[in-house]
Amino acid sequence: MRRLNFLIPDTELTLSIVSELQQSGIARSNLHVIGAITRNLKGLPTANIWQKTELARGLIMGALMGGLAGLTGGVLVIAFPPGGVPLGAQALAIGGGAGALVGAAMLGLMKGNEHNHDIDEYKKDIERGHILLMVDVPRADVDATIDNILQLHPDALIKVSEPK
Question: Which numeric CATH code is attached to 2-52+116-161?
């Protein structure tokens, strides 16, 4: 998937573009809108915690780092058995799994409260009243989707990125 990001000056135009995108076959669940607190986004597919925060990155990084730490602990338990009781590969599985769960939980909790840094460049425009529309489309459909948008809105500035 690729994410198309663009700023829209008002709610009416955003509603129109969302409708056009849905008519072209893009599911509403792939449309995410972020606006200022004062902006009325009624009727628009507002972004949720997955688009607004670093939660997804936190879960992934936490699972990776915790899993590696747990595997390291499992290797140490195998190399230096506690109480002289030899343990096998289950120590690796238990250590890696437990580490991944704890790491994902810890980093997920921390990153779930951190704003999404991919939208930092749009922050000032959003505060000025613009609306950020994020559209997730399959890689193969990126060019066609951009062409459709530009045919109807030739002045649209679209940035393509990888959704996190």
Answer: 3.30.70
**Residue in 49, 52, 56 with CA at minimum distance from that of residue 108:** 56
Could you state, in order of their start, the residue ranges of all structural domains in the chain?
2-52+116-161, 55-111
User: For 98-105, what is the mean pLDDT?
Assistant: 96
Residue type, 61: M
SS3 3: strand
Taking only the tens place, the pLDDT of each residue in 106-164 is 999 999 989 888 888 999 999 998 999 999 999 998 898 888 888 888 777 788 887 65
pTM of the model: 0.78
- What is the residue whose two structure tokens read 């606006």? 35
- Alpha helices for 24-122 (secondary structure H): 49-52, 55-79, 90-111
Read off the pLDDT of residues 42-61 as tens digits, 9 standing for 90 and up.
899 999 999 999 999 999 99
- Contact of 4 with 135, CB cutoff 8 Å: yes
Question: b or e along 11-49 (b: 16 or more beta carbons within 10 Å of the residue's beta carbon)?
Answer: beebbebbeebeeeebeeebbbbbbeeebebeebbebee
Q: What are phi and psi of 2, to 5 degrees?
A: -125, 155
